[in-house]
Amino acid sequence: MRLKPAVTILLILALVSGAEAAVITGNVYEWSTLKPINDVIVEINTVPAQSIVVKSGTYTFNTPPGTYTIEAKYYRSNLLEYHTTEEVTITGDGEFTLDLIMFPALEVEEFFESDDLSVDELFQETQPTDNTNPLILLGAAAAFLVVLIVIYFRFTSEKTISTVADETIPEDLLKLLTLLDKSGGRTTQKELRKALDLSEAKVSLMITDLESRGVVKKIKKGRGNIVIRKEGRE
Q1: What's the confidence (pLDDT) of residue 138?
Q2: Ramachandran category for residue 49: left, alpha or beta (phi over 0 → left; psi -120 to 50 → alpha)
Q3: By three-state DSSP, how is residue 29 classified?
Q4: 181 Cβ neighbours under 8 A, 6+ residues apart
């Protein structure tokens, strides 16, 4: 039996309308300032793949259920400056929020963890030869030592824990801020809840209170939240 074209079109429309679809949306932030950043290329590996250039600090994708990888890149003068990758699982229709935090494309830790560069190779060019001035070698070694010392103190020194002087902040909120400061000024809401041994609802209300006071900022990341201490708020 051959279906009429009109019936075929109606069947196709029914199948399409019955399929589940979701919307993934979120803001894109620069990691150090936590301010929205534009001109970021955001891609998701749907079939077919989707790509968008962020122009208002936000991105949006329409996707069917499944697990996807969202990758964001920011270029300056044709060089990759910031990059981040997130994985998201869509189980049904609705709107899902996933904020992206753009980190530097090459961190100092990645340089020292690289398998392509060994300590011997770093010192290879500073080995003394008959035609090399020993003073030049000594200066190069001293400069390299200074760089190592700076990097060491940068990543191992403890940050000074700020003291909240505002006496109007309740004691339970001060305790949360102290935990946040001890975590380097940023941690997840889940970790705060574990440390405080309070319910999820209570911790959420505390963070909302601190946000209204301008002391912290909450950023949605996946299914959880990142809580960040605002600078300049003592």
Answers
A1: 78
A2: beta
A3: strand
A4: 159, 161, 162, 229
Phi-psi region at 62: left, alpha or beta (left = phi > 0; alpha = psi -120 to 50) = beta
Q: What is the pTM of this model?
A: 0.48
Both tokens assigned to 2? 């051959």
**Closest of 211, 230, 204 to residue 169, by C-alpha:** 211
Q: Looking at residue 122, what is its pLDDT?
A: 41
- Taking every pair of Cα atoms in the chain, the longest distance, rounded to a whole number of angstroms, is 93
> In this predicted structure, what is the pLDDT of residue 63?
94
Position 160 scores a pLDDT of: 40
Mean pLDDT of 176-191: 90
Domains plus CATH for the chain? Answer: 5-104 (2.60.40.1120), 108-156 (no CATH), 171-229 (1.10.10.10)
Strand 216-221 with 94-97, pairing? unpaired
